[in-house]
Amino acid sequence: MLSEHSRLKDFPSLANRVYLNTAAEGIPPAGVMAALNQYGQDKLLGMDGRLLHQEQWRQVKSKFSQFLNLQSDDIGICSCSSEAYNLAFAALRLKDGDEVVINDLDFPSGSTPWMSDSSRAVVKVWRNKNGVLDLEDLAKLLSARTRLVTISLISYYNGFRLDVNEVSQLVRKHSGAMLAVDVTQGFARVPLDVKNADLVISSTHKWLLASHGGGLIGVSPERADEWTVPAGGWFNLNNAFDDSRFETLETKKGAASFMVGMPNYPAIYAINAGLDYISSVGVKAIDDHAKNLVTKCLAGIAELPVELLGPAHPKLLSGIISFKHPKFEEINKFLHSESVHAMAHAGRVRVSIHGYNNEADVDRFLEVLKKAILVHAS
Predict the structure, then answer these.
(1) Smallest Cα–Cα separation from 266: which of 25, 28, 37?
(2) CA proximity to 17, closest of 330, 337, 298
(3) Helix or strand holding residue 277 (H, E)
(4) What's the whole-model pTM score?
(5) What are the pLDDT digits (tens) for 86-124?
(6) What is the C-alpha separation between 201 and 269, in angstroms, rounded?
(7) Domains in the chain, CATH or no CATH each
(8) Per its UniProt record, what Gene3D superfamilies does this chain match (predicted)?
(9) pLDDT of residue 311
(10) Beta-carbon neighbour count of residue 335 at 10 Å?
(11) How far, in Å, CA of 279 to CA of 273, rounded?
């Protein structure tokens, strides 16, 4: 997808190393670094720079909304996905008897707010079977008391990929619950189809190739009232500077209510540039290119004495492959010593493949992985 020249021009830090850890941290293209510098130049203008900051945010809302099949006004931002989920928890105002369904393949930010001491809801866990979440198991957990089902489009743990529309149909059939979807491990890597989600959340420092400090939020306009955060602040209020604020607060609805204070404009500049870069290449082109690399990498790993943790069915593949080995930490250190970057965490090695990877990266990874396993065979 990228020639060697364009790859090193856009991603000079990838020279002489194999980077397969985008699921943790994406490598920003040169345009994102330039955007962060542009923020600095605009900030030097003082208040005159504020209009330039706001224009960057306007562009991000417009561009991100197109990925979600929403409108610009349906898009909000906070500092990260963890903050977004805690604000979502506040918005739901859960009562005794309410039920929330989480799953054991989700990142903690999406599953733990509902389990906090302040939560009054009953939490049910949709548990995986051999790395796969079965919809029949979800159906057994749903009831008229279910207020929320929260899922990830793609699991950070093993790359398992859910069909959001299938989950939505099941949730609507068995309950009146809302569906929240974390797309962090899919946004800018695979084409999104999340039009039937009520709340969509994404971090920005991974596959989007932007910076930290961004938690993008999309709220279905039909459920904006239910996703209105009851928080103090000023950016989220209609009457923040009116005398009426001492009598009652007028909170903005839906996505705008998640923005309780000044947006993180440096991150917004980076996000805008990341969106431009991804769009210039095309998510489908990225997915088509990387899918072949994932298939090749998975086949190579399957030949080794490791335990694969995710599904092998092509429909369920994403950019992430995970496997277990008793010496997973030692193996990852060996990989790193050979300038091959994956991730060792929670008892497994995780490999993630993006559009800037190529066949030579996969070949080198498999070559070094085989050596690492051989060295640590005993």
Answers:
(1) 37
(2) 337
(3) helix 265-281
(4) 0.95
(5) 999 999 999 999 999 999 999 999 999 999 988 999 999
(6) 19
(7) 4-27+283-375 (3.90.1150.10), 31-279 (3.40.640.10)
(8) Aspartate Aminotransferase, domain 1, Type I PLP-dependent aspartate aminotransferase-like (Major domain)
(9) 73
(10) 24
(11) 10
